[in-house]
Specification:
The protein has 18 helices and 18 strands. α2 crosses α9 and α10 packs parallel to α12. The two termini are 24 Å apart. The chain is α+β, with helices and mostly antiparallel strands. The protein folds into three domains: 165 residues, FAD/NAD(P)-binding domain, CATH 3.50.50.60; 203 residues, D-Amino Acid Oxidase, Chain A, domain 2 (2-Layer Sandwich); 127 residues.
Length: 544
C-alpha cells in the first residue's frame, strides 16, 4: 500500500501536464508513452488497474483474422503490425501459437476459402509468424484427437499470439513503466468534477478507500474510461464525433482439454467464432457476443449452457463438460466504436463491428478521448495519443521506444546467470510448471534481481506461499511494496490469475491465504481477508 499512499500525496495539490482518467489498457499505455516522453502525467481509476474490460479479454494478441471477411484490410494490417511489435518487445510474456480452426456445416466459409484467407493474413502480417497450413479432417484428428471430425469438412492452422500471464497484469506493467518514468498513479480514486479555467482544468478527486478529498490542476485531460467514455464526456458537455455501443462476451475456465499449447477455433451454431484457449493447466472457452445496453453485465445460466453445449458438440471428451467442471468465469463488455450521428444503431448487426479504436481531440477544451481498442492495438493507441497531445502545444521528447517492452537480452542473461548461481530452479520440481527463473523474469523483469537477493538472504522467501498456486513468498512481499494491491482480489484476480485457475474451495481451504493477506495488508489483514471471502460467499474465520 505504501506505493499507492505516496502517489496519493503527490496527486493532492499537484500540477500536471495531463490527467489520464481510466486505468485500463488505453489509459495505462497513454500514461507510459506520455511519461516516457517527458510529460508530467497523472493517471487515476475509480477501481483497480485493468479492473473492468481490460481484465475480461481472451488473453490474445492477434491481428483480427475474422475482420478480413468485412474487407477491413487496413485494420488487419495495423493489428498484425502491432502484434509483431509486441512479440518482439515482450518475448517472455507474449508467445506465438497456432490457431487450429475446424470447419464444419456451421462455418460460413468453405475450407478452401479459409485457407486462402489465412495465406492473405500471413502476408498482411509481413510473414512474421509461422506459415499457415490447410488440414483435412484426418489431419485435424491426428493433430488434435480431442476434436470431433464427424461433420468437419476441413480446416486451417494459422498463427497469432497470446499473453502467458493474464491481461490485467500486462496492463499493470504499463502503469509501472509510467511510474518509473515519473508519472503519478493511484487506483481507487474517483474523478468527482473537472472544470476548465482558462488553459487549465481544475479537478476534484476522491480517494474511495479513505474518503479523502483531493484537488489537482491539469493542462489537458485524456479520457480513457473505456466503456464509460461517453458518460464522462457527458459530464463535461463534451461533444465527440464517435461514441460507444456494448457487446457482452463471456469465458468459462475449465480443466485442460488438450495438452498441446494451441487455440482451437470453431464456428458455433449461430456462425460466430468461439475458441478453446490455453491458460497454463486450464482451458478457456469463449467468447460469446451479445448486444447489451449497459457496461454492467454478468454470466447468465443461458450463457453457460450455450457455451457448454457448443463445445461438447465439437470435442470428443471422455465425458461431456458440465457446470461442475467450470472453475471460474470471466464476463465483460467490448466498447465498440460507432459514429455519434444520432442513430440509435438498433438495426445494425453489431457482430460486424470490429474492435478498432478512434481518438477524438477537442483542441479548445483540451480533451483527448479514446474510443474502443484492444490489447493488441495498445502500441498504436499510445503513439496516436502522443501525436494528439502534441497538437495541444506540448513538446515531447523523441520517441526512443523505451516506454514499452522487456529489458534487453543482456539484462536477461545476467539475471539467468545469477539465478543459476543461486540454484533457483532446483527449489521447485512440479510437472508442467515453468522453471522459477523463467517465471520470475517473465513476471518482474529487472525487479526480479532484488528477489534473488531476498531469497539468498532468507531461503523462506523462495517457498510457495499458497499450496494451490505457484507464488513464492518473495513475490507477495514485492506485491505489497510495488504493485498497489489495495484489496485481496486485486492480487488474487489481477496481479495474479489465481482466482481464474484455482477453484474457490481450494483457495479457501488451502494453507497460506491468511499469510498472503498478512503480508499484503499488515494490521488490516483480517478485514481484507473477510471482505475477499465475502465476495466468495464464505464467512471468514475469527482472527486467532
Amino acid at each position: 500500500m505504501e506505493l499507492r499512499n505516496s502517489n496519493i500525496e503527490r496527486l493532492d495539490g499537484g500540477t500536471f501536464d495531463a490527467l489520464i482518467v481510466g486505468g485500463g489498457i488505453n489509459g495505462a499505455v497513454s500514461a507510459a508513452v506520455l511519461a516516457g516522453r517527458g510529460l508530467d502525467v497523472a493517471i487515476v481509476d475509480r477501481g483497480d488497474w485493468a479492473g473492468f474490460t481490460s481484465s475480461s479479454s481472451s488473453n490474445l494478441a492477434w491481428g483480427g483474422f475474422k475482420y478480413l471477411s468485412n474487407y477491413e484490410l487496413n485494420l488487419v494490417r495495423k493489428l498484425s503490425t502491432s502484434r509483431n511489435r509486441l512479440l518482439k518487445a515482450y518475448p517472455s510474456n507474449i508467445t506465438q501459437l497456432g490457431f487450429l480452426a475446424a470447419l464444419d456445416e456451421t462455418s460460413p466459409f468453405p475450407p478452401w476459402l479459409a485457407a486462402l484467407g489465412s495465406s492473405a493474413y500471413w502476408a498482411i502480417g509481413n510473414f512474421q509468424t509461422h506459415r499457415p497450413q490447410f488440414l483435412g479432417p484426418q489431419e485435424i484428428k491426428s493433430e488434435e484427437p480431442v476434436v470431433k471430425i464427424d461433420n468437419v469438412r476441413g480446416g486451417i492452422e494459422y498463427y497469432d499470439a497470446y499473453l502467458r500471464d493474464n491481461d490485467s497484469r500486462f496492463v499493470f506493467n504499463f502503469v509501472r513503466q509510467a511510474i518509473e518514468a515519473g508519472a503519478t498513479a493511484a487506483n481507487y480514486v474517483e474523478l468527482v468534477s473537472a472544470e476548465q479555467n482558462g488553459a487549465n482544468w481544475n479537478v476534484e478527486l476522491s480517494d474511495l478507500e479513505t474518503g479523502r478529498k483531493m484537488s489537482l490542476t491539469a493542462k489537458a485531460i485524456v479520457n480513457a474510461a473505456g466503456p464509460f467514455v461517453d458518460e464522462l464526456n457527458g459530464k463535461w458537455n463534451n461533444e465527440t464525433k464517435h461514441r460507444i455501443v456494448y457487446s457482452k462476451g463471456i469465458h468459462l475456465v475449465v480443466p485442460q482439454l488438450t495438452e498441446k499449447e494451441r487455440v482451437l477455433a470453431f464456428f458455433d451454431d449461430t456462425q460466430r467464432l468461439f475458441y478453446v484457449i490455453p491458460m497454463g493447466r486450464r482451458s478457456v472457452i469463449g467468447t460469446t457476443d451479445t448486444r447489451v445496453q449497459t457496461p454492467f453485465t454478468e454470466v447468465t445460466a443461458e450463457d453457460r449452457e450455450f457455451l457448454l453445449e457448443q463445445i461438447n458438440d465439437r470435442l470428443d471428451l471422455d465425458k461431456p463438460l458440465t457446470l461442475d467442471d467450470v472453475i471460474a468465469e470471466r464476463c465483460g463488455v467490448r466498447p465498440l466504436v460507432v459514429l455519434n450521428d444520432g442513430d440509435d444503431r438498433e438495426d445494425i448487426d453489431w457482430t460486424t463491428l470490429s474492435r478498432k479504436h478512434e481518438i477524438d481531440l477537442d483542441i479548445e477544451r483540451r480533451i483527448i478521448t479514446i474510443f474502443g481498442g484492444k490489447i493488441t492495438d495498445c502500441l498504436n493507441v499510445g503513439e496516436e495519443v502522443a501525436e494528439e497531445i502534441e497538437k495541444l502545444g506540448f513538446v515531447l521528447e523523441a520517441d526512443q521506444g523505451d516506454w514499452y517492452g522487456e529489458p534487453t537480452e543482456q539484462v536477461r542473461a545476467d539475471f539467468m546467470l545469477q539465478a543459476k548461481r543461486l540454484k533457483l530452479d532446483s527449489l521447485r520440481h512440479k510437472k508442467g510448471v515453468e522453471p522459477l527463473s523463467e517465471r520470475l523474469w517473465r513476471r518482474y523483469g529487472r525487479r526480479a534481481f532484488a528477489m534473488l537477493d531476498e531469497i539468498r538472504e532468507n531461503p523462506e522467501m523462495g517457498e510457495d506461499i499458497l499450496a494451490s498456486a505457484d507464488y513464492l513468498r518473495v513475490e507477495l512481499h514485492h506485491a505489497a511494496r510495488h504493485e498497489m494491491v489495495t484489496h485481496l482480489e486485486d492480487f488474487m484476480l489481477r496481479r495474479s490469475k489465481i482466482d481464474l485457475v484455482v477453484r474457490n474451495e481450494k483457495i479457501q481451504e488451502g494453507e497460506g491465504l491468511a499469510e498472503v493477506a498478512q503480508i499484503l495488508f499488515g494490521d488490516d489483514a483480517d478485514q481484507k481477508l473477510a471482505d475477499y471471502l465475502e465476495t466468495k460467499g464464505v464467512t471468514a474465520p475469527a482472527p486467532s
